[in-house]
């Protein structure tokens, strides 16, 4: 039995998240689809995957990771990583799945995709209407979005004060109890709501558009970036929604400060949680020492965050 680490990206629009779920069709979760694809290898064992990070329904990934154990059907043989990658990607293409395995490598038996991850990062893409579209209600902002950006970002009115959004993102950095910014905390009392946010930024995108669509002249694209070892359920989207609400004048900075300093669901000042389509799992980082490099070089196995970020405009 050999353990493999697979890195993959996907467009999450038509999937009900990564994790297998009861009463959800096999083709509707990322985990189910990948395990069905792995059956094409005809291994001796039934492949069971373990993901580094779970993403919700409609959320995308520039790079997620998983490990899986495979026992070759021929004794003393192992599956070559490039063969696994080719078989899976062929299956995804033939079955119209928006999933791509970008890398595969052999790892030690004790390697765990989730528990060995040192940190994770997310992007949230926001389209801000240009000043010529002032006073457009939030529910109608989508009308001015380029077709290629539908379910790929969240569009907000031109009145968004980006300087205030930047001030809010600065407040998120460091160690906080994020109980206010999650859901179902009461159902998992053993989990600590304290997280250390190593980096959080809001900036105008360096990739304004990737196709010549005149609708792009209606918007400017911005990115919310956040990096931490782990995140709570719905934490990133609630943080983004709070920052947007402040930028639109619906919350004051002292409201955000109160939610951080006095944590708890009862202190959540309700603001619209942005859609899952704007959220991208950007990167899972591991230490090189945790890897056993058999068939690929360290450069191929340990993708840099810059490489994954550069793929964002193409996914």
Automatic annotation (TrEMBL):
GO molecular function terms noted in the UniProt entry: RNA binding; tRNA pseudouridine(38-40) synthase activity
Keywords from the named record: Isomerase, tRNA processing
Catalyzed reaction equations: uridine(38/39/40) in tRNA = pseudouridine(38/39/40) in tRNA
Domain of life: Eukaryota
Coiled-coil parts of chain: none
Domain Pseudouridine synthase I TruA alpha/beta: 10-115, 171-287
E.C. numbers: 5.4.99.12
Pfam families: PseudoU_synth_1
Biological process according to GO: tRNA pseudouridine synthesis
Family: Belongs to the tRNA pseudouridine synthase TruA family.
Protein name as annotated: tRNA pseudouridine synthase
Organism field: Araneus ventricosus (Orbweaver spider)
């Amino acid at each position: 039995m050999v353990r493999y680490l697979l890195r993959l990206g996907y467009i999450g629009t038509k999937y009900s998240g990564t994790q297998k779920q009861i009463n959800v069709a096999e083709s509707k979760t990322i985990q189910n689809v990948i395990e069905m694809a792995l059956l094409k290898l005809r291994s001796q064992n039934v492949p069971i995957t373990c993901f580094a990070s779970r993403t919700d329904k409609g959320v995308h990934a520039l790079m997620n990771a998983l490990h899986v154990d495979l026992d070759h059907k021929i004794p003393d043989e192992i599956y070559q990583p490039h063969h696994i990658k080719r078989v899976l990607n062929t299956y995804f293409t033939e079955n119209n799945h928006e999933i791509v395995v970008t890398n595969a490598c052999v790892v030690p038996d004790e390697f765990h995709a989730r528990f060995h991850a040192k940190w994770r990062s997310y992007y949230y893409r926001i389209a801000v209407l240009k000043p010529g579209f002032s006073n457009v209600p939030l529910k109608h902002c989508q009308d001015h979005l380029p077709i290629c950006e539908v379910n790929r970002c969240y569009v907000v009115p031109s009145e968004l004060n980006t300087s205030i959004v930047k001030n809010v993102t600065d407040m998120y950095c460091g160690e906080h109890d994020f109980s206010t910014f999650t859901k179902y905390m009461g159902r998992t009392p053993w989990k600590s709501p304290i997280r250390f946010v190593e980096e959080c930024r809001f900036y105008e995108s360096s990739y304004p558009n990737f196709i010549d669509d005149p609708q792009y002249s209606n918007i400017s694209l911005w990115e919310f970036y956040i990096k931490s070892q782990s995140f709570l359920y719905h934490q990133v989207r609630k943080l983004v929604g709070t920052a947007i609400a402040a930028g639109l004048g619906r919350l004051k900075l002292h409201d955000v400060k109160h939610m951080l300093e006095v944590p708890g669901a009862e202190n959540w000042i309700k603001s619209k949680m942005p859609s899952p389509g704007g959220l991208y799992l950007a990167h899972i980082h591991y230490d090189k020492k945790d890897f056993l490099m058999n068939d690929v070089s360290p450069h191929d196995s340990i993708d840099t965050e810059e490489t994954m970020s550069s793929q964002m405009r193409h996914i």
